[in-house]
Design goal:
This protein is an alpha+beta fold and about 55 residues long. It is built from one helix and two strands; from the N terminus they run E-E-H.
């Protein structure tokens, strides 16, 4: 996800691929940001650095 650290609100994120989990099917799949855009899907990206860290 190189280059995302320099984005500002309103700028488009570059395409990337990520593995996702679907709790309804219990399966994993790969998705691309560009595929979501082409299908007209709204997508919210956020970064939460403390997620899954042990304290």
């Amino acid at each position: 996800m190189e280059g995302l650290c320099g984005l500002r609100v309103g700028q488009k994120a570059p395409d990337f691929e990520i593995e996702t989990f679907d709790p309804e099917t219990g399966g994993f799949e790969e998705i691309h940001l560009d595929d979501l855009r082409k299908n007209g899907k709204w997508t919210v990206l956020f970064f939460y650095p403390a997620d899954f860290t042990f304290v």
